[in-house]
Amino acid sequence: MIEETQLGVQNLIYPLFIEDGNGIKSEIKSLPNNFRWSLDTLLPEIEHCVSLGIDKYVLFPAVNESKKDKIASYSYADDNFYLDAIQKIKAEFPNLVLMSDVAMDPYSSDGHDGFVENGEILNDKTLPILAKMSLAQAQAGIDIIGPSDMMDGRIGYIRSVLDDNDFTDVSIMSYSAKYASAFYGPFREALDSAPKGGDKKTYQMNPRNKREALLEAQLDFEEGADIIMVKPATCYLDIIHILKERFNIPITAYNVSGEYAMIHAACQNGWLDYDSAMSEMLLSIRRAGADGILTYFAKDFAALTK
Ligand code: PBG
Fold first, then answer.
1. What pLDDT band is residue 191 in, cutting at 50, 70 and 90?
2. Residue with CA at minimum distance from ligand 1 atom 8
3. What pLDDT, on the 0 to 100 scale, is given for residue 192?
């Protein structure tokens, strides 16, 4: 009764990595106990996670280098395994909430979230590509589109393409305040998606800025975002807090790969207690104001609190 913050499995969203093929379960070294799955091995894993109470998932594709090109055309190709996986997971588990990732980097030969020309990321040339990708995901049955690319104007652009194609019920969870962070390293290893040149500082946010997060969130809100996200989470609790105060839509936070990896590394050394460090980290994100938390800890936290 006197505890101000409640945290339960209903607040958690579990990120899963999918690759093309069969019988695959390959561990991601820098993300202990997280794997790249093929669809056939992933389905029983999801069944197990559902039995622990996890009902929200975000799916990321690990794409073979040979499928990557300048315009991320594989992201909306007919034979795309990720779109096929969305469809099959949705068919098998119709009651789960499935969220996607919308950005060019998993499919781009440049490894950037946007379209690259002469070493520059071209914002406006990226928007139609993101919209095609979003539409393909909506057609596959995704519930919530997750643009993680940080291009300006993409929420409005994607929203109108979805609406024009009668996908008015597909929601958008915008990565609104996504910082150019050192904590994405293990994720880029998981997807082999690191930029081939340059960095992401021309489109992701400067960690020194807080008011800019309000502006980014305001624009996304006005363009039609249903949920706004802060990423990473623990170094940015002040941003979560301020967005929660200012916006009357749900706020999510991405407890990113590096945050997960550092707790694991310390625990492997015997320097921290895993269950209590995990719980305290997740609780702090929730206390700051996040309604939902995307976290690689979802399964362990669900098992711990079941
Ligand atoms: C890229 C994307 C990234 C993450 C999610 N989507 C990495 C990046 O911006 O380079 C990182 C998530 C994590 O570190 O767990 N579209």
1. confident
2. 184
3. 83
